Amino acid sequence: MTNSANHSAAYIPSSQSITVLSPATVANMVCGFDILGFALNEPNDELTVSISDQPGVEIINQDDFDLPTDAEKNVSGAALLAMLEECPDIKGFRLLSNKQIKPGSGIGSSAASAAGPVVAANHLMGNRFSKEDLVRFAMFGEKVASGVKHADNIAPAIYGGVTLIRSIFPLDIVAIDAPPLHVTIVHPQIEVRTADARQILKQNVLLRDAIKQWGNIAGLVAGLIQHDYQLIGRSLEDVIIEPVRSILIPGFNDIKSSCKEAGALGGGISGSGPSIFMLSETAETALAVESAMQSVYNKIGLDYHTHVTTINTTGVKIK
Ligand code: HSE
């Protein structure tokens, strides 16, 4: 971890700004609740940061989401304030936020808000902090959003690719060398609050379920590293969280079974929902999976949005 107190001050003109594309992410990756996540190439939030002579963090929203502009109550603001604490040579930051990732969608909207600004600010300050430091700052933003510090969206947003959070305290992030994967996401237009979706989880787990779950997590990580699509598919099973949370998502079981029939390797709830994601080996299958999702929600009569994309291997990008 970087000891920021020793960073020498570089002169940064306050007019200079950096714009980043901060990616949507899928947390949990089915069996890896709070420990496995991956970044997406689409959609992205566009965030512009500059150094300010005013103390604190000024937030200017350029989208229609009406997010708080009080930095302490704002996900980006909380992350930048945590960073400022370790930058004695910087008075403040100014953030222009143009979010494309709808808050509450389950594809890491809050993580994109937290990760993008700290990556942009770090560039402005000569990259004085490590990626692990940036995850640490961004987790303050995630805490504003869900009440808990978890990094399974933030780490992939910053590192790119698939990441394993072996531990949060202390932070231990492992980048997983995954094979190319196509991702199909359906976002039913209902709201599931992460805090509620965490509240309903059971606090105790049966040993036989735990054994199944850790077998699947180990199988998934091995499958990703060995680029073994069949092993990945077999391991995409969650016997602990999904049975509880899926009741919050209309049509969940039908979506899952029809996507598998369409050729998906497997998938599940994206983050805390309501989005559902599916992984496929080819772009063609990912599109067939999108049609399967559409036909289930058309039948139910529920509005939805879909995304067909791939894994973003670089994380937050400078625009
Ligand atoms: N791992 C988190 C959860 C992601 O499932 O609650 C949601 O932000």
Q: What does this entry show, briefly?
A:
With 319 residues, this protein is an alpha+beta fold. Helices cover 35% and strands 24% of the residues.
Describe this structure in words.
The protein has 319 residues and is of the alpha+beta class. It folds into 2 domains: 4-176 and 314-318, Ribosomal Protein S5, domain 2 (2-Layer Sandwich), CATH 3.30.230; 182-310, GHMP kinase, C-terminal domain (Alpha-Beta Plaits, 2-Layer Sandwich), CATH 3.30.70.890. The protein has 10 helices and 11 strands. Strands 1, 2, 3, 4, 5, 6 and 11 form a 7-stranded mixed beta sheet that branches. The protein is globular. It binds L-homoserine. L-homoserine (HSE) binds at residues 27-28, 34, 146, 150, 152-153, 194, 197-198, 271-272. The site of L-homoserine (HSE) has 12 residues, from helix 5.
